[in-house]
Amino acid sequence: MTEPAPYRSGFVSFVGRPNTGKSTLTNALVGEKIAITSNRPQTTRHTIRGIVHRSDGQIIIVDTPGLHRPRTLLGERLNALVEDTYSDVDVIGMCFPAGEKIGPGDKWILGRVRELAPKTPMVGIVTKIDAAPQQAVAEQLLAVSELLGPAAEVVPVSATSGQQVDIVGDVLVSQLPEGPQFYPDDAITDEPDETRIAELIREAALEGVRDELPHSIAVVIDEILPREGRDDLLDVHASLIVERESQKAIVIGKKGSRMRDVGSRARQGIAELLGKKIFLDLHVKVLKDWQRDPRYLGRLGF
Ligand SMILES: Nc1nc2c(ncn2[C@@H]2O[C@H](COP(=O)(O)OP(=O)(O)OP(=O)(O)O)[C@@H](O)[C@H]2O)c(=O)[nH]1
């Protein structure tokens, strides 16, 4: 008779250049939308945990901001957060899109990771395989394997089509230490609702805006109140913080048209998250140069 496989549990972090599909993969593995995704680089701000429940183990995903060279005080604080995260995870999954050649950016990140977490097992993940020809996928698998060395397993995946997502889960679990179930079956993330709501609003506000905006938008939830006499309705009051009047104009759009779209998209996401009807009251505020001012950063939770 064969022994039953041991139960394994632990923390996994995905690293890689911006836009390599880390958040999308997290969502696909967890099966519910929790991490912010967008087609703009560097939009992941908070360390969000997604939890994958399996019969043979539990994978707790710590979704980190991409490593990048700091340009502002915010950038420095994000990097400090990243370093803390990497030094205490059990497995690091490094993501490489199938259709993009490995470059100096990847090597720089790998160097940093090896420096911060020299003993942590690494898994190479070749992402977006639906968007590249088979030949390119095969070549990328080989290149990643050569880059990471013989100890690292390498898996191809498409988070958007779902192809191979289970296999990524299998490989990650196999690298985790034996351990207990850390979280109950129904836990998906330990982020408070408020943080998730703020991320949903931020994600909606970033959709389709110009390149310089991502790092300039923050969201503060001012208040969440049940509507009097209505169990099924919540009033959410939130502020979108930008750095300059010109950015405020971009966010609001012509006669408020963009703002209405942002509001309605965010409202739908929040309603799905909380399972209630939502009245969303959104205001845009200008806090000049908030990214460079330690007082503002503290107030905005960085
Ligand atoms: N075709 C395809 N596109 C994908 C796949 N996974 C992610 N994408 C797209 O790639 C873009 C970036 O995905 P994200 O998951 O936000 O990437 P990220 O690495 O978390 O990005 P940062 O937060 O900037 O570090 C988005 O437009 C995704 O829709 C995939 O499997 N196939």
From TrEMBL:
Species annotation: Dietzia timorensis
PANTHER family linked: GTPASE ERA (PTHR42698), GTPASE ERA, MITOCHONDRIAL (PTHR42698:SF1)
Ranges where the Era-type G domain occurs: 8-178
Superkingdom of origin organism: Bacteria
Name of the gene encoding the protein in the UniProt record: era
Region G4, residue ranges: 127-130
The KH type-2 domain, residue ranges: 209-288
Protein name (record): GTPase Era
Pfam (any one): KH_2
